[in-house]
Specification:
By secondary structure, this protein is of the alpha/beta class. It has one domain (10-286): 3-Layer(aba) Sandwich (Rossmann fold), CATH 3.40.50. The chain is 35% helix and 22% strand. It has 8 helices and 10 strands. It has helices at 17-31, 84-95, 124-135, 139-154, 173-183, 224-229, 233-244, 269-286; strands spanning 10-12, 43-52, 55-64, 72-76, 99-103, 118-120, 165-170, 188-194, 217-223, 248-253. Strand 2 and strand 3 form a beta hairpin. It is globular, with a radius of gyration of 18 Å. It holds the Pfam family DLH. This is Carboxymethylenebutenolidase. InterPro entries: AB_hydrolase_fold, Dienelactn_hydro, Dienelactone_hydrolase-like, TAT_signal. Residues 58-285 form the Dienelactone hydrolase domain.
Length: 288
């Protein structure tokens, strides 16, 4: 793991499967929550290229081994993109009975991984390329990519297209889940945002304003430090969901921004497992 200094946020982007499994197993033993190691069944994993209007997106595709058809799920990564820890999420979710796609959101600029090793968010020079990749993801591109990713998932033999699809996102991926649910309302039945940034803004393209265009149930897991910076956001979200007649579970977790993604000092095993358990419940209810 990376070293951290006060006032700095450092992420180890090379977090390995072994590292995550050890952490989750420890949490499961300590809290009684189901860890990754407890997820039974083998998973088929492949690197794929997804056709989009702007080219081909490199991505990781997962589904349970053996014969069968399962509901589709799209995972939007955080700002550092597709890397080992998100592949682990894909494997874990597939082991629970889903066809999972984890794309590289920056495919227009560079194939994944777009960063490696330890990344210090306070190092502006190091972060500049990543911030430029993020700035290039306009709302129109996000919506277009979401449609392409769901269409790709629906072309997979393992996908059960008769069942609803899910979408989940982390950090910058949080608002992308709102956009996806609005861009593909006929498919998305469950959407989850984990420490999502900018779910409520004063701009006309604020993600919370998209809710009337969606048909999904939502899980919105908010970081405690994000809530401290924007304490009115959760009330605005609750009002927006109520007005759109959309069901939503909105909760502030006792953990900081980034707590669900292994590799940084913000990672909180117990809170991450709780969030995963709530995600599992949402998918069981809406994608069954």
């Amino acid at each position: 793991m990376c070293e951290t200094d006060k006032g700095r946020f450092i992420v180890d982007t090379d977090m390995t499967r072994r590292g995550l499994m050890i952490g989750l197993a420890g949490t499961a033993a300590a809290t009684g929550l189901p860890g990754f190691a407890a997820a039974a069944g083998s998973v088929v994993e492949s690197d794929v290229l997804v056709p989009t209007p702007d080219g081909q997106a490199d991505a990781a595709l997962f589904h349970p081994a053996g014969k069968g058809r399962w509901p589709a799920v799209l995972i939007w990564t955080d700002i550092l993109g597709l890397r080992p820890v998100f592949r682990e999420m894909g494997r874990r979710l597939a082991a629970q009975g889903h066809v999972v796609l984890v794309p590289n959101p920056y495919y227009r600029a560079k194939k994944a991984p777009v960063v490696s090793g330890s990344v210090d968010f306070s190092d502006r020079a190091a972060m500049k390329p990543v911030m430029e990749y993020r700035a290039a993801l306009t709302d129109e591109r996000i919506d277009s990519d979401a449609r392409a990713y769901l269409a790709f998932l629906d072309r997979q033999k393992a996908t059960d297209r008769a069942r609803g699809a899910g979408v989940q996102g982390y950090c910058m991926g949080g608002p992308f889940t709102f956009r996806t649910a609005a861009a593909v309302p006929g498919r998305i039945r469950a959407a989850a945002s984990f420490h999502g940034g900018g779910l409520v803004t004063d701009k006309p393209n604020s993600p919370h304003l998209l809710l009337p265009r969606t048909r999904a149930d939502f899980l919105v897991a908010i970081a405690q430090n994000d809530d401290a910076r924007q304490p009115d956001a959760k009330a605005t979200l609750r009002t927006a969901f109520a007005q759109a007649k959309r069901r939503a579970e909105i909760e502030v977790y006792p953990a900081d921004h980034g707590w669900c993604v292994g590799g940084s000092q913000a990672y909180d095993e117990a809170a991450a497992e709780k969030a995963w358990a709530r995600l599992t419940s949402l998918y069981k209810a809406r994608l069954a």
